């Protein structure tokens, strides 16, 4: 069949141009949305008198047959058709004849692709939200079991203060809560219907865009035709949201790599999600977290690639925007798989409370508590208390001990201003639970954080 747009052309396209110009090798993924949009568009054409009821029925039946052929892998995606829109329209004309040629009345491929791609982006947004909810639920289940599991809290990757493992897991969870909020906001901002604006200036057919918006589940039609066909902010919003998720996953993956090493041994990744070395038989490599960490660069690159495509385009449609889909498809698939496998790794890993506690017993994690005791109980200014505590840390270092292991009599002998009772504040559990302010690591505060997040998830799921 000749090109559906080829009436004014004298020569056929070269094979090289067909290969360079075609998007069907990747935009075939939009077929469900293209058929849905065509059904709603034809329904609208019937309402405004362009199609009869009989013609509408023929078109819908033809589109249903095409959908079944695609689902059954019987449809021929021919590169000569250029894109999914032309592929389906050409197949429809072959199937039902002249009536099929009426379908494209009052629309352009420009608003057609804007609709299909936006529907894909919005659906992907919701699917990833559900994956994030599942992952957050897994994290909260882990956190619930470890509100009393003491581990070293770190700054600069150096031992800082004692925290509980549940508290650390809640910190991870907060990142994904923000990711969900970003996705939700992006969804609401972009839930407007592009179909019916034509090539770039509207149509003379009095398209009922309100009807189509309602039938397709959008809030309302888009406002300006020129903006509509050139807008890819909805895709960039998703790419940014996915980049943030990738960054958060990468940070968690980094900690999983560290924690699974012999130097930490806080966790053990299930053999089902680890690999070995081709030369060193003793090795068990945390390949899943490493790949999760590495995939962030790929997702960031997709965001920057589309920003680069869009930055110099004049308004209305430009063929450059054909470069949008592969970036979004890749990021959606990468993040979806990453969230799924991270959830499984977390669900199957083993956690060593003993190793966490042992590591918390080095590095003088309760030093801040000693300084606070000197301020609160001994009336010493904080800067002086800081200095005294530093001297006691140096003394403990000289004995190859942690300050929590020093006897009270030893500390009383190091400075006459130190009062009895100092030993009690150096206990790691007491130190952890002393941080009882809102947002703190005390077990009771961690439990409240878990409950608050669980309530938030429950409310989110009810929306």
UniProtKB/TrEMBL annotation:
Its main location: cytoplasm. It catalyses: 2-(N(omega)-L-arginino)succinate = fumarate + L-arginine. Pathway: Amino-acid biosynthesis; L-arginine biosynthesis; L-arginine from L-ornithine and carbamoyl phosphate: step 3/3. It is an enzyme of class 4 (lyase). Residues 365-433 form the Argininosuccinate lyase C-terminal domain. InterPro entries: Arg_succ_lyase_C, Argininosuccinate_lyase, Fumarase/histidase_N, Fumarate_lyase_CS, Fumarate_lyase_fam, Fumarate_lyase_N, L-Aspartase-like. Its EC number is 4.3.2.1. Residues 7-301 form the Fumarate lyase N-terminal domain. It is found in: Cytoplasm. GO terms for biological process: L-arginine biosynthetic process via ornithine. GO terms for cellular component: cytosol. The keyword Transmembrane does not apply. GO terms for molecular function: argininosuccinate lyase activity. Keywords: Amino-acid biosynthesis, Arginine biosynthesis, Cytoplasm, Lyase. Belongs to the lyase 1 family. Argininosuccinate lyase subfamily. This is Argininosuccinate lyase.
